[in-house]
Design a protein that fits this description.
Elements lengths: L11 H7 L7 E3 L4 E7 L2 E6 L8 E7 L6 H15 L9 E5 L2 H6 L32 H19 L4 E10 L8 E4 L9 H9 L4 E4 L7 H9 L2 E9 L12 H12 L14 E10 L6 E2 L10 E2 L4 E5 L2 E4 L5 E4 L10 E8 L8
Parallel strand pairs: 4-5, 4-6, 6-9, 7-8, 8-10
Antiparallel strand pairs: 1-2, 2-3, 3-5, 7-9, 10-16, 11-13, 12-15, 13-14, 15-16
């Protein structure tokens, strides 16, 4: 029989960190909610008394990278308020702490970047039989399980509008402190209401992806047709060093969504936003790859045409356009992975609803 907890002492984050890779499922008695722990770091809340009014279903994920602590703290506060019945919500929600083992070592990941393992990337097939091979590491297995839990959650609420906010903080400073990645949506229109929801969180800079990806947010968007975003809320800092005032609007907006607050997309005004599209994706193909700018150069810093961005195999990689801005530079990724994006402003007025 599975061990059960009241989730108050210790709280769910502590239980998660004490069970890095697995926790047997159990139900938690609660007056207001059906509360179910599905695995370590995966907890489901559904209000008991208004099933007919549950028009939205939300996934809030954090700790896909273990050292990004501010989103973990935001989600922990909301979870604790729900467990103690000090917060009343209208809509069901699934909270996910993605990589508990990485939380415990204060690193992005243990063996492999979890946010490059979704949409089937976690499993490789035998080239002869096409049968699935064993998982290469525990992060691959975790990604497969998280896909299963998101699927299970949305299937529990088939009529609800689906939303997934994958909450992160960035490795380096940013010229725009908060920004969101809008996964590639295969030509479908972007949604004014989602821009307005994220603006309420303090996010006014958006990066529109131009191709399929193996990120968690793309998985939910493509597989489950969810409103899905990777939301960057600031810079990576250790537990206890986050300025909570900088995250108050994001936390309150998540709470407001769960309580049923409606956000009006008709108030969308393009002048409130900086909307950019990917111009180039630069992958690391050799261990000689190095960035040509300092570690303190912020995300969204612009370069002039011809300025050097990186070097590999002794050859310079330069900006092809004036105003090309850098995002997510990381020379330490594995061979074959993205080491840098460059972006340019774009106009989306012709494909917006």
């Amino acid at each position: 029989m599975a061990t059960t907890f009241d989730l108050i002492s210790p709280d769910f984050l502590t239980i998660t960190r004490n069970n890095e890779w697995h926790l047997d499922a159990f139900n938690v008695p609660n007056e207001l909610y059906n509360v179910q722990v599905w695995d370590t770091g995966v907890i489901y809340f559904s209000p008991k008394n208004n099933a007919s009014e549950q028009e939205q279903a939300f996934v809030f994920s954090s700790a896909i990278h273990g050292n990004e602590t501010a989103p973990i703290e935001i989600c922990t506060d909301i979870i604790n308020d729900l467990v103690s019945n000090t917060l009343a919500i209208k809509h069901p929600v699934l909270f996910i702490y993605g990589n508990p083992a990485a939380i415990n070592i204060s690193e992005r990941f243990v063996e492999e970047n979890l946010n490059r393992l979704f949409s089937g990337r976690h499993t490789k097939a035998d080239p002869e039989s096409n049968a699935a091979l064993p998982f290469e590491n525990k992060e691959c297995e975790r990604a497969a399980k998280l896909e299963e839990y998101v699927t299970r959650f949305f299937e529990l609420h088939p009529q609800a509008e689906r939303t997934h906010y994958d909450l992160h903080t960035a490795i380096r400073d940013s010229a725009h402190e908060k920004f969101a990645v809008y996964p590639f949506i295969h030509g479908k229109p972007w949604k004014k209401q989602q821009f307005e929801i994220l603006r309420a969180m303090g996010v006014t800079t958006f990066l529109l992806m131009e191709k399929a990806a193996t990120t968690f947010s793309y998985y939910s968007s493509n597989e489950h047709k969810a409103n899905s975003f990777t939301v960057e809320l600031g810079k990576v800092r250790p537990f206890g060093e986050n300025d909570q005032t900088k995250f108050a609007s994001a936390k309150q907006t998540l709470i407001n969504l769960l309580k049923g607050t409606h956000f009006d997309g008709e108030s969308f005004d393009a002048t409130n936003y900086q909307i950019m599209t990917v111009f180039r994706e630069i992958n690391k193909t050799d261990e000689s790859f190095e960035l040509s700018f300092a570690d303190n150069v912020a995300n969204f810093t612009e370069f002039k045409k011809g300025q050097e961005l990186a070097k590999e195999k002794g050859e310079a990689i330069v900006a092809n356009e004036d105003g090309e801005a850098i995002v997510f530079p990381n020379a330490h990724v594995a061979i074959g992975q993205r080491a840098l994006l460059t972006v340019l402003p774009t106009d989306i007025s012709n494909n917006l609803v």
